[in-house]
Design a protein that fits this description.
Bound molecules: FE2/S2 (inorganic) cluster
CATH class of the largest domain: Alpha Beta
Strand content: 5-15%
Distance between the termini: 19 Å
Helix content: 40-55%
Number of strands: 5
Structural class: alpha+beta
Shape: elongated
Length: about 150
């Protein structure tokens, strides 16, 4: 990830709009580049896409993939949707939360790990499912997830 900076942020927003991209495309570009959408990017998003602050913030808060704070070095997203719940996602989530000391939606104080909920990764037939640093993991159990977390050295 690139460290957030205003000039690069504005350039990404302008490039997206010039290509005919929508507000969500600009938010995706900012997220892909910086890992989050810095609050200082809101005014240029409003100006360039002719949207109100409420509209921009509403889109950011609506989609799970957008965040307004920097993520940890590693991001673990645990599926909480129905199919994964039916095969133990809640219990697995409780174990991960206990092991890391984090609740879903939190980042560790040392900035190494962010734990998040996600609602379906398209791996419903192979749950419980998760995503670790963007890579999908299926058929999780405690041992498999422990090994993955250990490999991240968190
Ligand atoms: S319900 Fe978990 S991947 Fe679809």
């Amino acid at each position: 990830m690139t460290r957030w900076n205003e000039t690069k942020s504005r350039a990404l927003i302008e490039e997206t709009q010039a290509r005919g991209g929508a507000l969500t495309s600009a938010l995706r570009a900012l997220t892909d580049t910086f890992g989050y959408i810095d609050p200082a990017a809101i005014p240029p998003l409003m100006q360039i896409f002719s949207r109100s602050r409420a509209e921009v913030l509403g889109v950011i808060s609506y989609y799970d993939d957008f965040r307004d704070t920097p993520p940890g070095n590693h991001v673990v997203r645990l599926c909480q949707a129905e199919s994964c719940q039916a095969v133990g996602a809640r219990e697995l989530t409780e174990l991960v939360c206990a092991a890391t000391g984090l609740k879903l939606g939190e980042t560790s104080k040392d900035g190494k790990l962010t734990l998040e909920a996600v609602y379906c990764l398209g791996l419903c037939a192979n749950g419980p499912a998760a995503q670790v640093d963007g890579k999908p993991l299926a058929e999780l159990d405690e041992n498999k997830l422990d090994a993955k977390l250990a490999a991240l050295q968190i």
